[in-house]
Write a structure and sequence with these properties.
Amino acid/polyamine transporter I, two-stranded antiparallel ribbon, 20 helices, 2 strands
Length: about 500
């Protein structure tokens, strides 16, 4: 059944479909890789506690703000901003905030599918290993530590392989987005997200039973106040922001497909709780195996593509568990890439009145160009630094440039101005009619989105550009000490 919104647009068939799609949009590599790595590098329990606090005080208010703009506008993100601005007697130029979000989503899509291609490659490695060694054996049996460690750098240095993998992942994403909201995007979320949760819970149970469970619980949930430094607080604020995929107009776009009967406050709380739960469970999934193998649970992408394969070498059923893990990661990566592709595709459909398949194909073709440059930037184009003349981008290849540009500049700016727009510019009656809040929660949300969120997002922006100064400011606000360390990427 094809569902439609009040304006006749293709929309979600049910509230649960919207929730699953929104969770799929938020849950991605940031939850499964970045959160455990950030927790591992930033004090464990102190980081986790401050992260949860930031989700509640920053993530959820901005998430609700983005969704209500989309639901009221019932259009692509810039048009939705324009409609809310016009009805509030404000300048139509506020649509530029959403245009920046559309650009951010496109740029993230361009390198995110490269990472998705890497996940496909490791799925292939574990399938081949499973066939060679059998179900019950450890992963990569007979291979040395150095040989397994070398798999990742060898892959990313192989330009033709990474380009093809990126194109395959883009094509899979294209297939679902081109089929529409209810016929494609919703389907991938409704079917893959439950499977994702089954795999996550199953692997976590195996990991806790067979791994260093007590050490993991102590590490993640023991709060030591002295570890709550300025760097840790800044890292936690940044992780809370990126975990919910704020600032890429994703929830504005998805909100446009939500019916008027859905309570946005309640659904936003469910989305935030699910996203946070996945991040916490990911730590319980990964850390017991890694710690039991005597390895260090940090290192960003190296945690997934190097540390974990080593850990799978040390456990029974390592090949099977490794394959299940990367299938799970692939599901999360796909639901996120679908959301990222839908943002610019919806804009192209509205702006140029193109049929959906043509619009999605155009976005995919452009993303393939940027993605090819990103894929080659870890190999034959490693010496190409497009913005290397700027201190912030010095020495960064094309992929890392896109990552830094979006995560440290365009996304925080977009989220910051969204909070300002809803808190100060948008008509209060319009906002109140959409947000689904009442009583004390309504006044708390108004305070957070008007005052607290803009300040916190400004600090995130400052932290990306001047990490040491931002960490000092956080430490001063929290009464903590500052160590001379860079914020973990």
């Amino acid at each position: 059944m094809v569902a439609t919104t009040s304006t006749g647009r293709d929309g979600w068939s049910s509230r649960s479909a919207f929730i699953l799609a929104a969770i799929g949009s938020a849950v991605g590599l940031g939850n499964l890789v970045r959160f455990p790595a950030e927790a591992g590098a930033n004090g464990g329990g102190a980081f986790v506690l401050f992260y949860i606090l930031c989700i509640v005080l920053i993530g959820l208010p901005v998430l609700l703000s983005e969704t209500l703009i989309g639901r009221h506008g019932q259009a692509a993100a810039p048009e939705s901003y324009r409609k809310v601005a016009e009805e509030s007697g404000a300048s139509k130029s506020w649509e530029l905030v959403a245009t920046l979000g559309v650009l951010s989503a496109f740029l993230v899509l361009s390198f995110y599918c490269v990472l998705g291609g890497w996940v496909l490659y490791y799925m292939y490695l574990f399938v081949a290993d499973l066939i060679a060694t059998g179900v019950s054996g450890p992963a990569f049996d007979g291979m040395s530590f150095e040989a397994v460690d070398a798999l990742f750098p060898a892959m990313i240095a192989n330009g033709p392989v990474t380009v093809v993998l990126n194109l395959i992942f883009l094509a899979i994403t294209l297939f679902f987005v081109a089929r529409g909201v209810s016929g494609g995007i919703e389907k991938v979320a409704v079917y893959l997200m439950p499977l994702f949760f089954v795999l996550l819970v199953g692997i976590t149970i195996y990991s806790l039973i067979g791994g260093a469970s007590q050490e993991t619980f102590d590490y993640l949930f023991t709060f030591e106040p002295e570890k709550l430094t300025g760097e840790v607080m800044l890292a936690a604020v940044g992780q809370a922001f990126f975990s919910l995929s704020l600032g890429v107009a994703g929830m504005v776009t998805y909100g446009a497909y939500v019916s008027r009967e859905v309570n946005l406050a309640g659904t936003s709380a469910i989305i935030g709780a699910a996203d946070t739960s996945v991040a916490l469970v990911a730590g319980l999934c990964i850390f017991p195996i890694v710690i039991a193998a005597g390895l260090t649970p940090n290192g960003g992408l190296g945690l997934m593509f190097q540390t974990l394969p080593h850990a799978f070498q040390e456990i029974p059923f390592g090949s099977l568990i490794g394959l299940a893990f990367f299938i799970m990661v692939g599901f999360a990566a796909l639901t996120s890439s679908v959301a990222l592709m839908e943002v610019p595709s919806a804009w192209v459909i509205d702006q140029f009145r193109l049929p959906r398949p043509a619009a999605v194909l155009l976005v995919t073709a452009l993303a393939a160009v940027f993605g090819t440059l990103s894929a080659l930037s870890t190999g034959m184009l490693s010496g190409f630094h497009p913005l290397g003349f700027l201190p912030m981008f010095e020495g960064l290849g094309f992929l890392d440039t896109l990552d830094t540009l979006t995560s440290k500049l365009t996304m925080p700016i977009g989220a910051l101005f969204t909070a300002v727009f809803i808190g100060w510019i948008a008509d209060k009656r319009l906002v109140d009619s959409e947000n689904g809040l009442s009583g004390g929660l309504h006044y708390l949300w108004r305070f957070l989105v008007r005052w607290f969120c803009p300040l916190a997002l400004l600090l995130i922006l400052l932290g990306g550009i001047f990490p040491d100064r931002a960490a000092q400011l956080f430490a001063a606000l929290g009464g903590g000490e500052v160590q001379s360390a860079e914020v973990a990427e």
